[in-house]
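INTERNAL AUDIT FORM
Audit reference: QA-55
Scope: verify that the stored structure record matches its stored sequence.
Auditor: D.O.
Record contents follow.
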Amino acid sequence: MPESKIILQAKNISKSFAGHAALVNVDFTLYAGEVHALLGENGAGKSTLIKILTGVYQQDSGEVLLENRSIALSSPLKAQALGIGAVYQEVNLLTNLTVAQNLFIGRQPTRFGFLQQHKLDEQARSILKKYGLENIDVRSEAPKC
C-alpha cells in the first residue's frame, strides 16, 4: 500500500483563554483521503482546535503546516482561500437568505463591491451538481431546519 501524503499538520498547538489552558502541545496530522471526527468531553478542546485550524482563533504557540509549509491562519477567509474548512455537527441555515447565499456566506463573488448574483448562482449550482443535488433551486429560500 503506497504511503499517503500529509496534507495538514498541527504541531505542539497550545491555546489559553484568560489563563485557562484549552489546548496544550496538541499534535494532529491529516493524510490525503482521510476524514476525521473529533470526539471528547465538553471542554476537551475540540472546538478550539478546529477554530485554530480554520483561522477563527490563532494559537498561542505551535505551528500549522499545509503540505509541509508553515502557514499563518489569520482569519477564516485566509483558511478558506487555502482550502481549509470544517463541517460542523449542527448546521444553521439563514432562512432569510437563498440557498446560494447560504453556501457562500462571507465569500460572495463581487466586482467593484457589488454582488455578482449570476456568478453566485452559477457557483452554487456547480457545487450542488457535484453532490447530485442539481434539482435544488439556488434562488429559493433555504429550508427551515
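Auditor finding: record pair retrieved intact. The CA atoms of residues 109 and 120 lie 6 Å apart.
Action required: none
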